[in-house]
Amino acid sequence: MSDLYDRHKAVLPDWLALYYKDPLEITHGEGRHVWDADGKKYLDFFGGILTTMTAHALPEVTKAVSEQAGRIIHSSTLYLNRPMVELAERIAHLSGIPDARVFFTTSGTEANDTALLLATTYRRSNQILAMRNSYHGRSFSAIGITGNRGWSPTSLSPLQTLYVHGGVRTRGPFAHLSDADFIAACVEDLRDLLGHTRPPAALIAEPIQGVGGFTSPPDGLYAAFRDVLQEHCILWIADEVQTGWGRTGDHFWGWQAHGQSGPPDILTFAKGIGNGMSIGGVVARAEIMNCLDANSISTFGGTQITMAAGLANLTYLLEHDLQGNARRVGGLLMERLRAVGAQLPGVREVRGRGLMIGVELVRPGTDEADPDAAAAVLEAARDGGLLIGKGGGHNTSVLRIAPPLSLTVAEAEEGAAILEQALRDVQ
């Protein structure tokens, strides 16, 4: 492994981060498990950063990819593409957006970049509202609207970004308020902000902030925001790259927890739909999607082999009710971890929804983030045979737990036991 690590460092950027003091090479996987180059087996509670959504080596997806590869892998969007049309039809229907059009990309970053292009062109404004503690990708435009210093390497941007309160319920100036008062205060802040600026093009928001540590506002905040936005004809972009496809359990899309005032104008997706294949995309009302007055194609977005994978994966997810499984098994896992956290002074909060769970760590007796403890728990969990992630806008002190949605009750119990031991060993 040290030879591969040395080769990695010699040819790849310093900022291409690796987990663990002794970086891990994963060679294969099956179901909710992966194996490293030494043959050690791990229970995977991070799924390639929420991307292996259904299962590793899912036979239905493997078969679809193999069969499509035997016919044609790629032709570009310059030609009619049956798998792309079929997947677009299904996603348009599932999106909840009326008269929807779908454009496929290769990543969530590219999807959000496209959404920003559409919104700013449609509204003829380069001003964007974004949430504090947010993350939307690593392109030049996406970095420009990211409200998380750890993932923002430059302040240069083609956009003017204004940051809004509300993405983090338990920190910040409104944390002490009740849910209803929290929403009212955030709405009042938004109204005040709009009174001091030219009308922005759009608000972009993750229903649950992913890289930010699985933080979220009370249900209904973005519905209340939408009422204000509509007064000014400002669009709402829901970044569903991490929250889509039923991961939250209660809803198929994260925006549905805030759907009282209708669906978003634009929805972006990626990660889980491809189960590891590179698929991203944008859904928008036809009048918004069709507002571009110049040619635009996607060389690799919507390519046949990824669309075949997406169709097979989405079919499996729906036919096996993985959203329901995320709700049931995720609820049990959350309850188990909250019981553990209540006994440990270094656990500030266990939060999330479905199989999207964050465990925030602080220095015992304080409200100060403890990134060293988060790094140590990550290592201890690996030693115990469990892979998890980490993140958080407050100094990367949140453990991120997001297994494939087919997780069983037994696997949830096993993972919780390993994580409990890791937490106890560190604290």
Structure report:
By secondary structure, the protein is of the alpha/beta class. The protein has helices spanning 2-11, 47-50, 59-69, 82-95, 108-123, 140-144, 179-194, 221-231, 286-289, 304-319, 322-341, 371-383, 409-426; strands at residues 26-30, 33-36, 41-44, 100-105, 127-131, 160-164, 202-205, 235-239, 266-269, 280-285, 347-353, 356-361, 386-387, 389-391, 398-401. It has a 7-stranded mixed sheet, with helices on both faces. Helix 11 (322-341) packs parallel to helix 13 (409-426).
CA(first)-CA(last) distance: 30 Å
User: What structural category do the secondary elements indicate?
Assistant: alpha/beta
- Strand tally: 15
Helix content: 25-40%
| C-alpha-based Rg, rounded | 21 Å
Strand order of the largest sheet: 4-10-9-8-7-5-6
Strand fraction equals: 15-25%
* Biggest β-sheet description: 7 strands, mixed
Average pLDDT level = 96
Low-confidence stretches at least 5 residues in length (pLDDT < 50)? none
Gross morphology: globular
DSSP summary: helix tally: 13
Order of helices and strands: HEEEHHHEHEHEHEHEEEHHHEEHEEEH
Question: What are the key terms here?
Answer:
single chain; 427 residues; alpha/beta; seven-stranded mixed β-sheet; four-stranded mixed β-sheet; 13 helices
